[in-house]
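If your schedule permits, I should be very grateful for your opinion on a structural question. Kindly check, if you would, that the fold set down in the tokens agrees with what the sequence suggests. Thank you for your consideration; the sequence and its tokens are set out here:
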Amino acid sequence: MTEPASCDCLSGALRLIDAIQAAQDMHQCCQSLLEQALALTTSQSGFVLVSDPRLPSEHFLSSGFEPNFEARSLADRLEWLDQLADAPEERPTRVRFGEHALALQPIRASGRVLGMIGLAGVDEVDTGLQQLMPVIGTMIERLAAKTSMERKLLHFDTFLEVSSLLAKPVGLSESLDIALFSSMKAVSAEAASILLLDEAKQRFRFFHVEGAAKPLLGEITFDSSEGVAGRVLQSLEAQVVNDVVDDVQFYGQIDSKTGFRTRNLIAVPLLAGNDPIGVLEVLNRSGNEDFTVDDRLLLVAVADQIAYAIRNAQLFDQVVQAYCKRRQGEDSCDKCPQPLESWDPCNQYRER
């Protein structure tokens, strides 16, 4: 009778290792780990938490608990991780959470606790699962390192792409079209815009827009203290708002005028040195997903490049206008064909 049970245990262990190894990202890894851990034990309820500084956010999945278990257990999970860091190697820790008796099995690698598996209604975690924990920890650590490297490469590629595009001798409008499209692609957003401050820094106007609302926003302006953009301008700190309905400062009049429905957004101040010139916003992460801290950090780097491109264009425009007016008079530049991007003297001046 023991032999079939041993075979089942071995088969379950192999399925667990195969499932984790086949995972393409940490969410899929946690999902596979939770399913197989429950299958290997008598527990009907459990959760998996992976928390690693190399990941943009913690990954938490639960099954079999009441719907609000994740929100209710948030503070306790942090305490449980601290307890597991001091607990004996590979041994489960028992805790109570409301009506649940939980056995917490640490996920360890390189001497650190990367997370835990929590199983309800069991006194001991299955021995086979315990024996697999060093392998599971190593695989999760490698996946976290891979995720971190891919994230850094994405940041670097996006930064280079936007920087090189804004450095090209093309019109600012064309450059910003591409820069905003690159920002949207990098964080999987549906739309993006640049809200530019007027000279008095009292009002925003939509200087540039990409996405569904592009034809509708050209003439709209609003007070620079309004909305999430106003809050970001005041604090000079980028912000992620993953549910605009719950944000009392969200400026819903823009959605009312355009018919575009904003679900979530990232707003990043555009700073040329210490001078605020506007706000970059990306809207609605695709797949109804939330924006992450990592998305925010990526856009902060991109925003610097966009801010200086706008500032340089503004300065250049001032130089050209001052040059033409000083050399040729107030009305001499009407219908002048000289492109704004050129530093060459205009045709009328050269003919003189």
